[in-house]
Write a structure and sequence with these properties.
mainly alpha; about 0% strand; single chain; about 400 residues
Length: about 400
């Protein structure tokens, strides 16, 4: 009891002292944002014909799928009784944004992402089912879904249908992550969250984080495979990352200026919290380290003539700092919005456990899991087809050097 009392400053009601949403709810919008951003990067090549980013197209799709498969798990762990989540499908509640997420998730997973990946890989899967042996051959034959026709006409149809699916996927990706910001922005009782800009800020920050992740994954896989990095591709991704980052930061500053100008009864409390409890995570990590510094690094590459090695280092640093900054943004929104009382007179502190159901260890494992899934997907469906198209018959694909 003493530890709880020491964590409170001012007056707070008993049900406000303990935070209801933990680090798992921080992970949820962070992971879904990576999914949406990775898909948007893939759509640059498929829809907008940005040929320079072609080397990352398939990798972006597989990255989006790996993280999408993990996206609901933080909510499942937080729910305590994950079997209850199926109630949203059995008894649809159309007025609940959270309940409708289940249908948005199924639409995006089953109709958009899996279908686009299958259409894009169908020729590869058919050829792999003919060239591999053992249990892996059975897997590829199952993935063909009985469609072995890889004639030019059939592949042309695949490309047309895939283009249309990708076109549908763009608003679907916006809906997948934009609704998270909608949920926070529609909570009128919390002035930290209640802003019409919240869905837009969440959406652009998702695009930023997804692009940064795919850029890092592409550079990392190239290093592991001892293959040269396509600098034109990385330069193009870096430019789009810079553009999206500037828009995202501008929206956040617009929201901040609006709060300062409006200066309602909650402003003094929120201002105090930013300068005390959230100073490190909000000012130092999110804004300085995770926003201004990567924007400066990305802008430096655009205005200064640097060697390929120097550009690779700056891109890697900017991408890593970007992910840290976006995670801090999610932390400050979810955790920061629960640290003050409804009366704006009291404050509390979030204490995260380690090996508890909603502690640090489950959060770390949930962040490792999508990378493990991605490793399996890359081994099963290599994003670099040239590595196995020229392989001898009966030879299994490999992504290692």
């Amino acid at each position: 009891m003493d530890s709880v009392l020491h964590a409170v400053e001012g007056f707070m009601y008993p049900n406000e002292v303990e935070l209801q949403w933990s680090v798992l709810i921080v992970l949820y919008p962070f992971i879904t944002g990576l999914v949406a951003g990775a898909f948007i990067l893939a759509s640059l090549e498929r829809i907008f014909r940005v040929e320079a980013v072609r080397p990352t197209y398939r990798l972006a799709l597989l990255t989006a799928l790996a993280f999408l498969l993990v996206a609901p798990l933080p909510l499942q762990l937080h729910l305590g009784h994950p079997e209850r989540s199926f109630e949203m499908y059995l008894t649809p509640h159309t007025s609940s944004a959270m309940a409708m997420f289940g249908f948005v998730y199924l639409w995006y997973l089953m109709v958009v992402l899996l279908l686009e990946i299958w259409l894009d890989y169908r020729k590869d899967i058919v050829l792999l089912s003919q060239r591999t042996t053992g249990p892996l051959r059975l897997v590829y034959r199952a993935l063909t879904l009985g469609s072995d026709d890889i004639s030019p006409r059939a592949l042309h149809t695949d490309d047309k249908v895939g283009w249309f699916v990708t076109l549908l996927g763009i608003p679907s990706a916006f809906l997948l992550h934009g609704y998270v910001g909608f949920i926070f922005g529609s909570i009128k009782a919390n002035p930290w969250w209640s802003t019409p800009l919240m869905p837009i800020v969440f959406l652009f920050s998702a695009i930023v984080s997804g692009i940064a992740l795919v850029m890092l994954m592409y550079m990392g896989f190239a290093w592991l495979r001892e293959q040269p990095i396509d600098m034109e591709c990385v330069d193009t991704i870096g430019r789009y990352l810079l553009y999206a980052f500037v828009i995202d930061f501008s929206l956040e500053m617009l929201d901040l200026l609006h709060r300062i100008y409006e200066a309602d009864e909650s402003f003094a409390s929120l201002d105090f919290m930013v300068h005390t409890k959230l100073y490190t995570s909000h000012i130092l990590i999110q804004i300085v380290l995770g926003t201004l510094l990567p924007i400066g690094l990305l802008a430096m590459v655009q205005v200064i003539r640097l060697s390929d090695a120097a550009r690779r280092g700056l891109y890697a640093s900017a991408g890593l700092l970007t992910l840290i900054g976006i995670f801090a943004m999610r932390w400050n929104v979810v955790i920061g919005g629960q640290l003050f009382s409804k009366s704006f007179l009291g404050y509390t502190t979030y204490k995260m456990g380690f090996a508890t159901r909603e502690g640090l260890l489950p959060a770390i494992l949930l962040m490792i899991l999508p990378f493990a899934i991605l490793w399996v997907l890359v081994r099963l469906l290599p994003p670099w087809p040239r590595e196995w198209e020229e392989a001898k018959p009966q030879e299994a694909p490999s992504v290692s050097a």
